[in-house]
Specification:
With 249 residues, this protein is α/β, with parallel strands linked by helices. Helix content is 35%, strand content 24%. The strands form 4 sheets. The protein has a 7-stranded parallel β-sheet with strand order 6-5-4-9-12-14-15, sandwiched between helices. It has a 3-stranded antiparallel β-sheet with strand order 1-3-2. β10 and β11 form a beta hairpin.
Length: 249
């Protein structure tokens, strides 16, 4: 890859996953650590990303400091948000993870809805507390600064005390063989606890993340009850997931 191609690839991966790991970029692009380090440094100096130890973060995901940064595929995420809202019933207990699609959902919840939302996502909490009739429960105490979500033993212990009606997950990657996968160990452990304590699990993802995978498994595909994308449920890209027993919205 030429430098321009490498840097475009890095920015696209950030759009999809909110963060990138230097080690994985080396493998994906078949270049040295020094090359990746220089690319990340140049992009950081140009104001295109936030360079951190071991990789980089998206500007859009860190909206506290970069509120003018656009959300990647916001139109598609708005469609997903509207679909998943149809699954939320009055007086439900709903566990949600973090991510920009979850935030789109939170912003669009009907003002008359009465339900309890349980999360460790700081941006999601901020969105939920603006709602007039939603009860908000925050779990955990240690905050993962990259994902802006509480993680660790305290968060997992609190989640295990809940009997949630729905678990709604923002998704990093999903495919038929590996199920839902992620690249952050602490977030993976949190999501596993959320799935285990919920009656139904909902996976939210833009179509671009379908048939992709990361290093760490969150759950197998058979543990997912609903898959929500911006696509029409009859789209042929979704047919293998329907055949695998997942309800597609």
């Amino acid at each position: 890859m030429l430098k321009k191609e490498r840097q475009a690839y890095i920015l696209h991966r950030l759009d999809l996953h909110n963060k990138v790991l230097s080690a994985k970029l080396c493998v994906d692009m078949n270049v040295s650590e020094d090359t990746v380090r220089r690319d990340l440094q140049e992009l950081a100096e140009a104001g295109r990303l936030i360079k951190v130890h071991g990789g980089a973060l998206s500007l859009a995901f860190n909206e506290v400091h970069f509120s003018s940064s656009p959300v990647y595929s916001q139109t598609q995420k708005a469609v997903i948000a509207q679909k998943v809202i149809g699954l939320i019933r009055e007086n439900m207990y709903v566990l949600t993870s973090g991510g920009t699609t979850i935030i789109e959902m939170a912003k669009r919840l009907p003002p008359q809805l009465r339900a309890t939302f349980i999360t460790g996502s700081i941006p999601a909490v901020n969105a939920y507390i603006a709602h007039p009739n939603i009860n908000v429960v925050v779990v955990g105490d240690k905050v993962n600064k990259e994902s802006k979500i509480t993680v660790g033993a305290s968060a997992i212990a609190k989640i295990r005390e809940v009997n949630a009606d729905l678990c709604i997950l923002g998704t990093n990657a999903i495919d038929l063989r590996r199920g839902i996968t992620d690249s952050d160990w602490e977030v993976v452990e949190l999501k596993k606890a959320m799935i285990a304590t919920s009656a139904k699990t909902v996976c939210l993802t833009i179509a671009e993340k379908l048939n992709s995978f990361e290093a760490l498994q969150v759950c197998e595909l058979k543990q997912i009850d609903y898959l929500v994308t911006e696509l029409d449920p009859t789209d042929r890209l979704l047919l293998p997931y329907i055949e695998a027993g997942v309800t597609v919205l």
